[in-house]
Design a protein that fits this description.
The longest helix has 24 residues, at 90-113. The strands form three sheets. The chain has a five-stranded mixed β-sheet with strand order 3-1-2-4-7, sandwiched between helices. It is of the alpha+beta class and 381 residues long. It is 43% helix and 10% strand. α8 (189-198) packs across α10, α11 packs across α12 (283-289) and α11 packs across α13 (313-322).
């Protein structure tokens, strides 16, 4: 544990904090401001040093990805057609690639650690365009397009304050776990992709029908609905754009093979806008890395963490340690006796609308005694 003086001295002498990473994510902890804040650095496998702040392109991310491509498909016609269709909208391609640049190193590291084909790291292009805040009428969410029913089986929670399906780390782990399970079931990554998109039960039905007809059971001899088959074709099309960008006149962003973000644990309540200010980034950029939060408040619990650009972590920790104002516009109130939200609001001279905005309260129901409620902090005069 580094005390305040030691840490600030390190900043002054080194100019950058040395972090360590596990699976491409660096870690640092932020303690409660009720006492003197004491950021701590946890130690894991491989180091992320000051060199990360001023990146070099000694190892290119796209080259690393290409070396791990493994999938093949016999019928290349649909893949070529999809690749040209995607490349025809260069503006759309660049938006997708810009989004992907935030997350691709982490995902590729996780895929490699599991010895999976690097094509699996391309799935978010199909599911969300690598935009974790994208929404669809079918209710999938996050980078990986996880449905509510799937999230339950993957141990992803969703509540009033956050949705794990949009959490960059948790959703990636869950999606890769699911893909590994599907690969173990079908023995073919291409069938795992189909099952990920269409459901394993449907793939089983196709295999049983093929078996009943005494026809080959390998992927290239199976017949799926065109819209389902197109899922693999689209993923392989993105592979083609990355494998041979010049052929499709695609400009890949220059990305070093090193972490983009850092994981910081905050053990107290902090507002999203204040966290963004401390890191000196926009709220929009903060939410691209922390899209799981539904409310403007990040609750202070042992397992709540935030992601920050690795280039901004020293700035964040320095500003955090010298921050003299409150970290949140909200305080926690333990309700002493059962009462209506309207009565509680009147007692504490706050807007009842604010109570409903920041607490999972049912209209017309009483708040039970012992409940924790967020109410606005009184404004100091």
């Amino acid at each position: 544990m580094l005390n305040r003086r030691t840490y600030l001295a390190c900043l002054m002498s080194l100019g950058a904090t040395v972090f360590h990473c596990l699976g491409g994510v660096a870690h640092a902890a932020v303690a409660s401001p009720t006492t003197a804040p004491e950021p701590a650095v946890s130690s894991h496998n491989s180091a992320v040093s000051a060199a990360v702040v001023s990146p070099t392109i000694d190892r290119d991310l796209w080259s690393e990805m290409r070396t791990r491509f493994q999938l093949t498909v016999a019928d290349r016609g649909p893949i070529e057609q999809q690749a040209r269709a995607i490349a025809s909208s260069q503006a759309g391609v660049q938006i997708n690639l810009q989004h992907a640049s935030r997350y691709m190193f982490y995902i590729l590291q996780e895929v490699a650690a599991r010895d999976m084909p690097s094509e699996m790291a391309l799935i978010p292009f199909l599911e969300s365009g690598f935009n974790p805040k994208s929404k669809s009428g079918l209710q999938p969410a996050g980078l990986w397009g996880l449905m509510p029913i799937a999230s339950k089986s993957l141990n992803l929670s969703a509540n009033f304050f956050s949705d794990d399906r949009r959490d960059i780390l948790l959703s990636t782990q869950a999606a890769l776990n699911l893909l590994q399970t599907l690969y173990a079931q079908f023995g073919d990554w291409r069938l795992a992709l189909i099952a990920y998109n269409w459901g394993p039960g449907n793939v089983v039905s196709v295999l049983r029908r093929q078996q009943a007809l005494k026809l080959p059971l390998d992927y290239d001899h199976l017949h799926f609905p065109k819209v389902i088959q197109a899922y693999v074709s689209k993923l392989m099309a993105w592979r083609e754009l990355i494998a041979d960008p010049e052929r499709y006149k695609v400009s890949l962003p220059l990305l070093a093979y090193q972490p983009y973000f850092v994981e910081v644990a905050a053990t107290h309540n902090i507002d999203i806008n204040i966290a963004a200010d401390l890191a000196e980034i926009s709220v929009a950029d903060f939410l691209y890395l922390n899209p799981s939060f539904n409310k403007p408040l990040i609750r202070g619990t042992a397992d709540h963490k935030i992601l920050l650009p690795v280039t901004q972590v020293d700035v964040f920790l320095t500003n955090y340690l010298t921050h003299q104002e409150r970290f949140s516009a909200w305080q926690t109130l333990i309700v002493s006796q059962a009462q209506r939200p309207e009565d509680l609001a009147k007692t504490h001279n706050v807007s009842v609308g604010k109570l409903y905005e920041m607490n999972p309260l049912a209209r017309g129901a009483q708040i039970r005694a012992g409940s924790s409620i967020f109410i606005p902090e009184p404004i100091k005069k």
